[in-house]
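Final paragraph of the annual report: two paired records, presented back to back.
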Amino acid sequence: MSVDGRNELQRFAESVVEAFLQQVKDSEHADQAEASREFFASRQCADLVDRFMRSFAQALATDLMQERRADPFRRLLCHPLTELLDQGALSRSLLGNYFSFLHLVLGDDQESMTQRCQQIIDQLHSHPQFSWDLFYDNERAKLVLWQALMRVQDTFKRFDARRDWFIGLMQNRPHSVSLGTHSFMTLPRSDEEDQASFGVTEFNLMFGALYRPLLSLNGADQAAFSTTFGAPPEKWIRPLVDQLG
């Protein structure tokens, strides 16, 4: 649990104890056990619990977002979308669905790709001027990105049906997150989530940002791509890009 989560727990405990002691002090009952039962059955206690659950869920959601940002594989697959995200053309609240889609397509291979990315990061951290741009420009990182995108591209052979399915997935709004086998936490909803939209326009922008750069690789990258996949990007990527508006 993060510092934010622990702080929420501490604040909640302190507020409950303070409210309880105040009620015992003000109670007409000499019996403190009876005062305790009245307090924990009271609306005041229920309101405290409700406020805590909302605050704790928000802290949990922040934890999850920070974990995603620290994941080098996810950062790599988000990097082509940076401009769309910064401009607001694509809502960051949709990234969770994007990551879910990647996991559906890549399956267990995502774990090995993440490990490869982490190995690259571990080596690059020794560089005195380390930055994430060093990672994005790394030849081995580019190969991981291309392999993931080629796996995604391969699932779009039936383009219209797959596009519609993808849009439906991106429009989904999860209301909870799993904390264990039989435990779930309701996630808070933000104005950004409520206003975020994803349709054909957003799909075309998103997949254009992911795939169009592959059609203008420099000579060395195009050669590396062709060696890895048996043909230049034009052969594999052009049919998908041509179907984007």
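The closing record of the year follows.
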Amino acid sequence: MPQSERSLIIKEFLRWIEAKTKQGGASYQECIRHIQLEITEMGAEEKRCKKYVQDCDKAGLINTKGLKFNITDKGVNWLQRKGA
């Protein structure tokens, strides 16, 4: 997958999780489903969608509070720097 496409998917995911954070966060399954249905339009395997969530978590762009994922300050700053 081209790097630009991957970056667009991550930007869209972080914008969505930023909105969900204001509502208390999103479950792991909601994150996977959002990436698969909304961003990739069912064009990605569930395994690939899980990888996006894991990569964002490892990079510190999102974190978990209980069972919900939320965007971190680092994630918000990343979005701002990328012009998203």
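The first strand starts at residue 26 and ends at 27. This concludes the annual technical report; the extension proposal builds directly on these records.
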